[in-house]
């Protein structure tokens, strides 16, 4: 039995230590906001926070999360920075198909948690591992700047 902190709540999971966090979240916890993309940490669709750091849940084993806090898109609205990011996403109308957006929001929230005045270069560097097949990158950058303004 593995005990985890997921979105501020303790969860006991009867899963293998090497199960990727993504599958524990989606298949065991039924938290389906985190998406499966490439399965190789190349696209960022599976981004969640582990102790506040953006990680790729598709390649991170559940054993790496023991004693740490996992935050998913389902809980990001309970964070001041996450609220600002989600509000900016809506205001800027970032989403097209939306598939990658939970990972994008999680990566943006992690960025703005550590850097509340990011430059375009900071944003590009932080978001470079999150791929959007619709090409919403200019709107993602605008939304991150809008969220940073809200947090100032």
Give a brief outline of the structure.
With 152 residues, the chain is an alpha+beta fold. The chain has helices at residues 21-28, 80-92, 101-114, 120-127, 137-151, and strands spanning 2-6, 9-13, 47-50, 53-56, 69-71. The radius of gyration is 15 Å and the shape is globular.
Q: How would you describe this protein?
A:
By secondary structure, this protein is of the alpha+beta class. Strands 2-1-5-3-4 form a five-stranded mixed sheet, with helices on both faces. The chain has five helices and five strands, in the order E-E-H-E-E-E-H-H-H-H.
Q: What's the number of helices?
A: 5
- Overall 3D form: globular
Give the integer mean of the pLDDT values: 97
Structural class determined from secondary elements: alpha+beta
Please tally the β strands and state the result: 5
Distance between the termini: 43 Å
Proportion of helical residues = 25-40%
Low-confidence stretches: none
Q: How are strands sequenced across the largest beta sheet?
A: 2-1-5-3-4
The largest sheet is: 5 strands, mixed
What's the SSE pattern?
EEHEEEHHHH
Amount of beta strand: 5-15%
- The radius of gyration over CA amounts to 15 Å
Note the main attributes of this structure:
152 residues, alpha+beta, five-stranded mixed β-sheet
What is the strand and helix layout of this fold?
Layout: E1 2-6, E2 9-13, H1 21-28, E3 47-50, E4 53-56, E5 69-71, H2 80-92, H3 101-114, H4 120-127, H5 137-151
Parallel strand pairs: 1-5
Antiparallel strand pairs: 1-2, 3-4, 3-5
Helix pairs in contact: 2-3, 2-5, 3-4
